[in-house]
UniProtKB/TrEMBL annotation:
Residues 523-623 form the CBM20 domain. The gene is aml. The keyword Metal-binding applies. Keywords: Calcium, Carbohydrate metabolism, Glycosidase, Hydrolase, Metal-binding. GO terms for molecular function: alpha-amylase activity; metal ion binding; starch binding. Its cofactor is Ca(2+). This is Alpha-amylase. GO terms for biological process: carbohydrate metabolic process.
Amino acid sequence: MSAPTSPAPTAPPLARRRASTTLLATGALLAGAILPVAFQGTAHAATANGGDVIANLFEWNWKSVGQECTTVLGPKGYGAVQVAPPGDSIRLSNGTHPWWDVYQPVGYDLNSRMGTEAQFAAMVTACHNAGVKVYADAVINHTAGANQTSTDSYGGASFNPSTYTYAGIGYDRSSFHDYPATCPNAGNTINDWNSAQQVQECQLVSLSDLYTEKDDVRSKIAGYLNKLEGYGVDGFRVDAAKHIAQADMAAILAKVDDTRWGGRPYVYQEVIPGGSGQLAPSAFEGNGSVLEFTYAHKLKDQFTGNIANLRTFGQSWGLEPSDKSAVMVTNHDLERDNSTLTYKDGSRYVLAHIFELAWGYGTPQVYSGFRFTTNDDSPPADAHGYVTDTDCSSGAWNCTDRDQGIANMVGWHNAAKGQSVANWWDNGNNAIAFSRGSAAWVAINNSGSAVTQTFSTGLAAGTYCDVIHGAPASGGTCSGPAVTVGSSGQATVTVGAGDSVALYGKGTSCTSGCPTTSPAPSPTTSGTVTETFHETKTTVWGQNVYVVGSIPALGNWDPNAAVALSSASYPVWSATVGTPANTRFEYKYIVKDGSGNVTWESGANRVHTAAASGSETLDDTWK
Ligand code: ARE
C-alpha cells in the first residue's frame, strides 16, 4: 500500500495550509482546493520503521544518501537520516570549496552541492521507501556572510551578499538585523556572548542575520521548511538556533505544516552551552529538542579516562532531559575542534558509539563524515565543488553507520526500547557491562587487555549471536561467534582489548527451522488490520500449532508469547490477530507438545505486509 499520489508537478507550491492527517490518509480532495504538497511526487512507503537512531551523513550527496537508506539504514533499523543543508548556497570566488559554504544560504530552491532538486526528492522517496525518516539541516538564522563578495552559487540563485539582496527568496536589506536599530555594535559583531540581544540580533561570524521578528521573514523561512516537508522531510536540525529568539522560532514553527508521514516535525536545535538564562540550552526546549554537546564532551572525558564512571551518566551530569536530548559522539564542528572523540581515535570512537546506542539516553546519532587534513577541506567533490558519490572503500569517507558492530547495535537499541539499565558490572578499570532489562546485554572493554568474566546478562537461557562480530544467519546459526547464556542468566565471555560483545533478542535452543532475523523495530502506525492465519497441519495428540513473528502482536519471535491457533477446522488451524496497518512483518508457525517442546517449521521466514485497513486471510501450509 502506498500513499496516494498525483501527477508530479514542476515545483511544490509554497502557499499551503496545514494538511490534516485525515486528508493525508484518505486522499479526499475538495474541488478547487490547493493540492497539498504531501500528495505530490512519487509514492512513498506508508510508514516509518519506528526506530529513533539518526545517521548523520554529513555532506553526502543526495544520490549516496538515498542508496545508503536503501542498502544500510533501512535494513539495519536506523529511524532517520540527517542530511546536509538542502538549499542553494554561496560558492566562493577564490575557487576553494570549503565544507562550510553550505552554511551560507542564498536561495531556497534545492539545487545545491549535494545535487539537484529532483535528486533531493528522489533521495527522500528512497529513504521513505526504506522506512527511514529524513531530517534536514535547516540553516534559517542567516543567509551568506555580509563579508562575502561572491555572487556565484551552486544552484544558480540570484543574490548579492554585500548588499543583502536575495532576489530569489525576496529578501532585501530590511529583512536583516542591523546596527544600530537592532544590534548595538558597529560592524554587527557579537561582543557580549551573554547578551541575548547581541547573540540574536547581531551577526554570527558576519553571517547576514535574518530579522525574524518580521512576519514576512518568518513566512519565507516557514515556506522553505514547508517546501522540504512537501518532499517528505520529517524533521529539522536547526542550525545556530541559539541565535534565533525563542518567540521567533515558535512563530516560524507555527507556520510549519504537519509532516507527510503525520505529526509534527522532529525539531532539534543547535544550542552550544555557554550562555545562561535565555541563552541556555534548556531555554530552547519549548520549541523542541536540543543537540547535547555536554554529552559528547563528557563521553570523550570518560573514554580517555575510565568508562566505569559512566554508571551514573545522565541528567545528574548536567545533561538536558533524555526526551529533549539529541545525543552524539561528535558532529562536523566537534570533530574539527577536537573537543570530542573522532574517527582519528580508532576503537574508542567505535566503542563510544556502541555505548551511546546501548545506554538509552536521548535520541542517538551516528556520525559519518569525510576525512580531512585541514579544517576547511572540501568533501570529495568535482572541480566545481559538487560533492561526488560516497565511496566507503576509498578511504576518503568515514562510513561509521556501516561499521558492523555499530550498525548491528541499532537493532540492539531498538530491541531494548523501554527497558531500564540493569546488571551493571565494571572492573574499575575501563571495562563495563550492563543489560537493558531482559532484552539486551553489552560488554565494552576500553582497556588495553582482554577481559574474561562470568557476567549476569539478564537474558533468558539460550544461544545468542554476538552482533558486534556477526549476525544471526540462516538456519539459526551466527555468522560470527555465539554466546551461551545459562539458566540463571550467566554467560562467560571474553571481551577483547578495545572491543565489545553485544547480545539481544530471544536466545533460543532452536536447532532447525529457527527464524532468521532479529526482532524488527516496533512499528509506529495508526490503525490495525484483522489478519486471519490459516495453517494446514496434521498433528498428533497433545500437539498445538502457534504463529510467532517479528511484531509485538505475534510475540516478537518469542515462542512463549506465540499466538495459539484453534483446531476447530482441523487440519486447518486458525487464529485472528490485529496487526498494525501498512506494516511489514515476518512470521513462522511452530508446534508445541504437551511438555512445551517447540518445533519450528523449516525454511525462511514468511513475510507479509498488512494492508491499510480491513481484513485479510493468510492461507499457509506447514513447511
Ligand atoms: C565562514 C568563515 C568566517 C566568515 C563566515 C561568513 O569561516 O570567517 O566570516 O563564513 O562569511 C560554519 C563554519 C564557519 C563558517 C560558517 C559559514 O564553522 O567557520 O564561517 O559555517 O560558512 C557559535 C554558534 C553556533 C555555530 C558556531 C560555529 O552559536 O551556532 O558558532 N555553529 C553552527 C554550525 C557551523 C556553522 C554555523 C553555525 C553557521 O554548526 O558549522 O559555521 O551556519 C562558544 C559559544 C557558541 C559558539 C562557539 C564557537 O562555545 O557558546 O555559541 O558557537 O563558541 O564560536
